[in-house]
Amino acid sequence: MAGRINQPQVAEEILAQNKADMIGVARALIADPEFVNKFSKGNAEDIRACIGCNQACVGHRLAHYAISCIQNPVSGRETQYPDSSTAASTQSTPLVRTVVVVGGGPAGMKAAIVAAQRGHRVHLFETTKQLGGQSLLAEKLPGRAEFGGVTTNLIHELKQTDVQLSLCKPGDKEALLTLDPDVVIIATGATPRLPDVEIEGIELVDSCQAIRDSSGFGQNVVIADWACDWSGLGLAQKLAQNGHHVRLLCGGSIAGESIQGIVRDQWIGELHALNVEVTTYARFYGAQNDTAFFQHMTSGQPIVCENVDTIVSCYAPRSNNHHAWLSDFAGEVHTIGDAISPRSVEEAILEGFRCAWEIK
User: Fold this and answer.
1) Torsion of the alpha carbons at 326, 329, 350 and 159, rounded to the nearest 10
2) Up-side HSE of residue 344: CA atoms within 13 Å toward CB?
3) Could you report the per-residue pLDDT of 12-54, keeping only the tens digit for each?
4) How do beta strands 310-314 and 203-206 pair?
5) Is the per-residue pLDDT at 128 higher than 50?
6) CA distance 60 to 30
7) What is the pLDDT of residues 138-160, one digit of tens each?
8) Residue 258: which pLDDT band, with cuts at 50, 70 and 90?
9) Secondary structure of the chain: what % helix, strand, coil (to 5)?
10) Distance in angstroms (rounded) separating the CA atoms of residues 183 and 359
């Protein structure tokens, strides 16, 4: 038996009930190649559980890229990182550095974990009271609860290291003066922004705000989806399930154009079943009173949506990469994840790993 068995306890139960003679595990072993070894040693709690996102495994394969895993960036890159657990103290030129990581999202957590595993002194600063960054938003959408496993797994790995964690505290000039780091890693993510269009007499909110709380939205919702990623699809599903009439107008040739087809296509089917109206090639132009205006991106013709109560903007966020407090810092500064350019958790974790790996 095989398919979505990502915990050894599940495999054991199937075997114990004589429902199968052998269990096949694929994606769970890509996420954690030590899956079976950890379980056999009684360390099942240390398994990095697959979240079934299909982004870098099946998604890569269908796009003709090498298979990998958003949580395990070494997978598919084993020849580049033949021993990803090598500590700095065991390298040919031992050198332990003091590393400050600013930002506790997936990129920052991964960088802190790997830097600590390689023997460096690491301090991680997060301005909020909770680690996880935007993955905390993704898990709030319908069918995406398992995505929270990214944060859960990283926090567990973080606890296995000597990283000094400071929540509700930004990395700033005071941290530099106190810690005197050799390396600063900026993983401060991105900030939502609204498009620069004329809006009059109607509510316009960004996607992050809508994911957190849509209780005050009117019955008829238009989603202006320029990003064409998981946020537009997820919000359309969430709002439709909550009883709203939803129109999703996206700037791509298909809704969710920027994400893997195996993830996107199922979502589009779910939106169809919920009677979500989808319009492609639509550029948001503005809104007045109860009317939202779009322009068809190839014909140039107007697309008019009437009887609109709320407009949700899924617009490209802005990177948080301006840090004046680093202007006089003479050490190394690296920027990773959405602080470089807003993308997905796959790039964030990969860049966090690479950045920490390359610290000399």
Assistant:
1) -90
2) 17
3) 999 999 999 999 999 999 999 999 999 999 999 999 999 999 9
4) parallel
5) yes
6) 13
7) 999 998 899 999 999 999 999 99
8) very high
9) 35, 20, 45
10) 8
How would you class 213 by CB atoms within 10 Å of its CB: exposed for 0-12, middle for 13-18, buried for 19 or more? Answer: exposed
Distance CA 312, CA 225 (A): 8
> Which residues make up the CATH 3.50.50.60 domain(s) of the chain?
198-316
Pairing of strands 183-186, 98-102: parallel
Least Cα distance to 185 among 360, 352, 329 occurs for 352
Domain 198-316, what architecture? 3-Layer(bba) Sandwich (3.50)
Does domain 84-191+318-360 fall into CATH 3.40.50.720? Answer: yes
Task: For 315-325, give one letter per residue: b (16+ CB within 10 A) or e.
Answer: bebebbeebeb
DSSP states of 44-79 = GGG--------TTTHHHHHTTS----SS-TTTT-TT
237 vs 231: CA distance, rounded Å: 10
CATH 3.40.50.720 location in the chain: 84-191+318-360
